[in-house]
Amino acid sequence: MDVPTEQAYQQHVDELTARLAQRDATIAALRQQVTELSKQVADLLAQAARLSKNSSNSSKPPSSDIVKPPQPPLPPGEKRSIGGQKGHPRHEREPLTPAQIDRVVDYQMDCWPLYRKRLPWLTASGC
Questions:
Q1: Which of 5, 78, 82, 84 allows an S-S link to 74, with CB 3.0 to 4.6 Å?
Q2: Are 105 and 91 spatial neighbours (Cβ–Cβ below 8 Å)?
Q3: Using CA atoms, how far apart are residues 59 and 4, in angstroms rounded to an integer?
Q4: Mean pLDDT, consecutive 10-residue segments, the chain of 127 residues?
Q5: CB 55 within 8 A of CB 65
Q6: The pTM is what?
């Protein structure tokens, strides 16, 4: 059996010292990374708290609440259905009785109101 010499002990001590120095450097790098990640977590938590506030759980005005995004446009060729919601009762104005009518006024349009153009069936010029 070999008896370890002073030189073998010193070599072993040097190896252990090098390993400790490497581990110390790794620990320092990991501590720096933990510090940076802790700051990121704190920033994200603050941002989440800020974004989750609305007028019902803070002193913010209702106008600052995020509203629903607009509905996507209909596919080409598809039209929106007109009228009220399906299943809801219809609401109409009752027609006037003859006793309620006291005068009748006839109107005639000379031009298209929105386009300021003459109506095709009229021959007079100008609008």
A1: 78
A2: no
A3: 77
A4: 79 95 97 97 91 80 78 85 85 91 84 64 57
A5: yes
A6: 0.40
